[in-house]
Model the fold of this input.
Amino acid sequence: MTTQNANTVAAIRRMGLLEWGLLLTLSAIWGGSFFFNAVALRGLPPLLVVFGRVFIGCFGLFALILLTRQQWRPHLHRWPQLLLLGGLNTALPFTLIVWGQQHITSGLAAVINALTPAFTILVANFFTRDERASAGKFMGAVLGLGGVSVLIGTDALTGLGDHVMGQLAVMAATFCYACGATYARRFVGVPPLLVSCGQLAAASLLIGPMALVVCRPWELPMPGLDVLGAVLGLGLVCSALAYLIFFRLLLSAGATNVSLVTLLIPFSATGLGIAFLGEPFTLRLLVGMLIVSCAALLIDGRFRLPRRRS
Done:
């Protein structure tokens, strides 16, 4: 193994304080997207909300590229890769989740979405050389799913087995996220700002025509300022800023570690409810947080399972 490859393995094996801080920030941003989604869906159909989110996010990031005078034209030859990334990591999973949540509860969707680290461990194991699966990582993924289930409660599992297509849609979305995060490692050396903008531009091209045909927005009534503000928040904060953090974290922590955000999102959403909506802090939340924390450390590699002595 070369020195460069050895350094890469060491870099993505464990996360430092900066990486953990970015991961927690990302989970808080994407946890807050549930609030924005709820408001936006009051006045717009789901597919139009998704298109507005990715298009506004792309517009905001491109404006930032122009302001910072980053050279984006030398990377235009990557458009086929960006199109695939935009489909795998944004357009397809966003659409699948929105469709699936019309048939299943948000709690059950969150539990299924917590399968992302397990899928990422499998995908990264077969398609990368430096993120091989281990018993500790698999144990961490299973433990994390259990922690999310404790947080949400057994009520979230009500309906498990009903509306199977909705459940399969959300599960397919988590597999897309796993493939997208692993594939995105091909963009090593490309500034995160350019990758983020390229991904959202590709997603806009993929979703835009479908949204126009299905939703016919010119026939819809003008949405209120609260709905427009929510879509703006989804685009600029939950997409533009979030993907800047996502791709920055991906470069230093790897696909498996960055997928931990799906375990943390339910806790950040609950934390926002406690902080701003007066929701109670319960023992179930504390137990769930402890379980997920242990799971995250197992996947990160900071804790290791003891090996059997021969």
Observations:
- The chain has twelve helices and no strands.
- Residues 1-12 have pLDDT under 50 and may be disordered.
- The CA atoms of residues 53 and 235 lie 4 Å apart.
- Residues 225-258 form the longest helix (34 residues).
